[in-house]
Amino acid sequence: MSSAFSSGDSIIQNQSPVTVVDHVLLHEIWNSEQKQRCLRWIKEHNLKRVALQFPDTILTHSVQIVNDLQSAIIDELSIFVLADTSYGSCCVDEIAAAHANADGVVHFGHACLSKVSRIPVLYVFFEFKLDEAQLLATLSREFVTWNVHVTCFYEVCYTGAMAKIRDTLLDRFPNMVIASLAKADQKADIMYWKLHTPHESNGLVLYIGRDNLSFFNTAVTLEASQCYLYDPTKTDPKLERTDAFQAKWLRRRYYAIERCMDAGSIGIVVATLSTKGYLDIVSRVQRLAKSRGVRTYLISIGKVNPEKLANFIDIDCFVLVGCPENDIFTSRDFFRPLLSVFEAEMALNKSWKEKLLTCYTTNFPDLLPNGRLYSDIDDMSLEINGANEPADVSLITGKARNFSHPNVADTESKANGTCTDVASKRRNELAQISSADQFTSRSWQGLEQNLGQDAPALVQMGRSGVPIMYENERNPPPSNNQQ
């Protein structure tokens, strides 16, 4: 046996080393300019209780930032520091801010920029440096002639750096369009970007930043002939041509969509309570599932992980309603497929059945009214589509789907001269299945409380220590007679 498991004390003393993924210095997130910007924003909104939200990587700088703000404000101001966010560090944690009765949130670090409807928010991004000369040299060397339309996007941590070299890039490359972050009162054209000139489908896409979810979300949203990535964090950054719709990724997503089409029950996992429109998209998924005779369960469990969703064994697949930066739907650790809202739309909405993944979105507001991928549906069309949808065969189970229709039953009965007393006019008219029915049909329904049936027991001292060796299991020291 290894020495690490020889005693309980060694286990307690054995600690895993802490690793820092992104080491951010104080000047990369906070300076005098950002300080004055925060003070102006607090005074403009007349805020009295402000919550400062930090990711774990820069939580050590929170003390200095709080001291700078409180020392500069004469009026009474209460400042709260938020950490261990409810869903993700990129999202504004409106729930934690509400616990402190905060009337405003200052969000530090990387942000998904999801629209927040109930509380004013100020974003303070990382301020990473960008080598202007190296960027211009790389672009000039790789692209001798820029005769095609080029749309340039960037990671939000390079917002300040891109503002400084914006005019230089436009003078050097006249066919380039540099996207800007949409303001709070503006409607974004793509994700959280505002484009002064519409992006052409046969144009190029240039992304300045790391190969992360922000780049992926931008790349799959656009229909571009070529997409190039320039990562300034590398020692020798170069233009890398990438393909967002990789064959391996496409197969996995098509498999998840096919599993959703076979599902008899769907769990709608709500991973946000502050993003504008999340209730509307939940209601839309419920209506689409109902038209196909699929039961839906609404689940809100905070930070989503495989262990939490494994408790719902009766659910065939899950649909995640969250911010675009949430990458858990691509994880393979879940025992059931976890789909984005757009993939659930492709599985449940008939209008998407014949379309391939030539366009994609992880931003669910795109599927709401006034969204770029919105398809108009009403209760009548859902009822007709659910009843008269043509039968097809599942590519996973090999079984037929959607084969019970009133037209088929009426035609067969008239042809054979027979009458069927029990015939399904529409789905879910022969039997109504509720969540309670599914729970009562289980062989094991949890621990029985037996309230009022068991005699009360006395409170006793429990065991202490670690499971490998509790305190009462330790061997007593040998006596003198034994020696």
Give an overview in words:
- It is built from 14 helices and 19 strands.
- The two termini are about 25 Å apart.
- Helix 8 (about 245-260) crosses helix 11 (about 340-350) and helix 9 packs parallel to helix 11.
- Residues about 1-20 and about 405-425 have low confidence and may be disordered.
- The protein has helices spanning about 10-15, 30-45, 60-70, 95-100, 130-140, 160-170, 215-220, 245-260, 280-290, 305-310, 340-350, 380-390, 405-415, 435-440, and strands at about 50-55, 80, 105-110, 120-125, 150-155, 175-180, 180, 195, 205-210, 225-230, 240, 265-270, 295-300, 315-320, 340, 390-395, 400, 465, 470.
- It has about 475 residues and is of the alpha/beta class.
Mean pLDDT: 80
What Rg is obtained from the alpha carbons, in whole angstroms?
A: 29 Å
Q: Rough shape?
A: globular
- Would you report the number of β strands? 19
List the keywords.
483 residues, alpha/beta, five-stranded mixed sheet, four-stranded parallel sheet, 14 helices, 29% helix, globular
Per-chain topology:
Layout: H1 8-13, H2 32-44, E1 49-53, H3 62-72, E2 78-82, H4 94-99, E3 104-108, E4 121-124, H5 132-142, E5 150-154, H6 159-172, E6 176-178, E7 180-181, E8 193-194, E9 204-208, H7 213-221, E10 226-230, E11 239-242, H8 247-262, E12 265-270, H9 278-291, E13 295-299, H10 306-309, E14 317-321, E15 338-340, H11 341-348, H12 379-388, E16 392-393, E17 400-401, H13 406-416, H14 435-440, E18 465-466, E19 469-470
Parallel strand pairs: 1-2, 1-3, 3-4, 5-6, 5-9, 9-10, 12-13, 12-14, 14-15
Antiparallel strand pairs: 7-8, 10-11, 16-17, 18-19
